[in-house]
Design brief:
This protein is α+β, with helices and mostly antiparallel strands. Among the domains are: 69 residues, Translation factors (Elongation Factor Tu (Ef-tu), domain 3); 134 residues, hypothetical protein PF0899 fold (2-Layer Sandwich). 25% of the residues lie in helices and 33% in strands. The chain is globular, with a radius of gyration of 24 Å.
């Protein structure tokens, strides 16, 4: 690549595209993520340190006028400490394509812009998926196999071009880095470019990401195992509230979840995040009751419906990647996005673009070291089994 071309690329990546990527990934990837407070001070080295307060102050009570005062016994604190997760977005540009466009600044700009738009779009999708996930990177589970075509329980997260690993339920790896070459959403099938030892009941994960993804909502609402390195079996207050609605959505169902969270922990639910079919069910409910649904403005340019039950307005919005029939009732004051810094190019050696070994191509990698934390899981509630519309 000529010096002029290289200089042009580096300047564009550092000064123009990086800020745009940061804005889009911080504000537009996920309505949930966009609302969270950012916290760098609680990241010590590469680890997140989060104080989790639980229980009640035992030093409160009544007594005789000449009696002994209550014994001080403050709320308990458990320090959670865990490693930040590593986000990477990587793309390549071949030297041939760059040389072919060197006579036209417009053509070159279009080439780079297209690469950045693709990186931005797919990174937003992946971040949104991880915000909802359980941290394992699980995409779907197989139920039948025909050649290299796997029938799965959901194709919601699948797309052509993805690189995936395949594991058995016992975590034995079958395929490593296979490419998805066809997805049939109607038939719920995924075709990969290698058969290998793929089995009918294999679980598919993003390549190299198994058990390394963000601590998303499903991870916090799990009822067993560890959370932030702490065992739920030892600390029951780590268990978030879950209710099986098993039917139509009612305002009283939402209100009970809000009331229970406040009664148990003092949490003040201020954010309802649901699946698209559940939002439609709520809108139908309001229409049937001839109620006007107001809208609220949220951070990042997002908007939400207004749930007005109880004693305050609560934002109700949907995520198009959430599984059907679900709603999360959250107190966002208990959630933070912990990070070591904003999105950056991997350029500690001074080179945003690096030669790809054994290829006539250059590559760039966007990085961020971060995770999501909730310091009061018991104050959050999930409603599931809702009949969607």
């Amino acid at each position: 690549m000529g010096i002029q071309n290289m200089t042009r690329v580096l300047e564009a990546l550092r000064t123009y595209y990086l800020e745009g990527l940061r804005y889009q990934l911080n504000s537009d990837a996920s309505v949930f993520l966009a609302q969270l407070e950012r916290d760098t001070e609680s990241v010590v080295g590469s680890k997140i340190v989060m104080a989790m307060r639980y229980g009640r102050n035992g030093g409160i009570g009544m007594g005789a006028d000449d009696g002994t005062l209550p014994t001080p016994n403050g709320r308990k604190t458990k320090q959670a400490e865990w490693e930040t997760k590593n986000f990477f977005a990587r793309f390549q540009i071949t030297e041939k394509v760059i040389k072919a466009s060197k006579t036209s600044r417009g053509a070159f700009a279009n080439l780079l812009t297209q690469e950045m738009e693709d990186t931005e779009t797919d990174s937003k999708f992946d971040l949104s998926r991880q915000c909802l996930g359980d941290g394992t990177g699980k995409l779907c589970t197989g139920s039948a196999l025909s050649g290299a075509v796997l029938t799965v329980d959901s194709t919601r997260f699948m797309a052509e071009g993805m690189l995936i690993d395949s594991y058995t339920a016992g975590a034995v790896k079958h395929l490593a880095g296979a490419e998805v070459i066809a997805v049939d959403h109607g038939a719920s099938t995924v075709k990969v470019n290698a058969v290998g030892t793929l089995a009918a009941t294999d679980i598919l994960y993003v390549k190299g990401s198994k058990d390394l993804e963000l601590t998303g909502l499903d991870a916090v609402f799990a009822q067993t195992g560890n959370l932030y390195g702490l065992a739920r079996a030892t600390y029951p207050w780590l268990k978030a509230q879950r209710t099986n609605v098993a039917g139509e959505l009612e305002e009283t169902t939402i209100q009970k979840a809000i009331d229970d969270a406040k009664r148990l922990t003092g949490a003040k639910t201020n954010f309802l995040l649901c699946a698209l079919d559940v939002r439609r069910a709520y809108q139908d409910l309001m229409t049937a009751q001839k109620q006007t649904v107001n809208s609220l403005k949220l951070k990042g340019g997002w908007s939400a419906l207004s749930y007005t039950g109880g004693d305050r307005e609560v934002a109700l919005t949907a995520d198009d990647l959430m599984a059907d029939g679900k709603m999360f009732c959250l107190d966002l004051n208990n959630w933070k996005f912990y990070h070591m810094g904003d999105f950056e190019w991997l350029d500690e050696d001074g080179a945003v673009l690096s030669r790809v070994a054994d290829k006539a191509a250059y590559e760039a990698t966007l990085t961020r070291y971060c995770d999501i934390g909730c310091d009061k899981p018991r104050g959050q509630c999930e409603l599931y089994g809702i009949t969607g519309h």
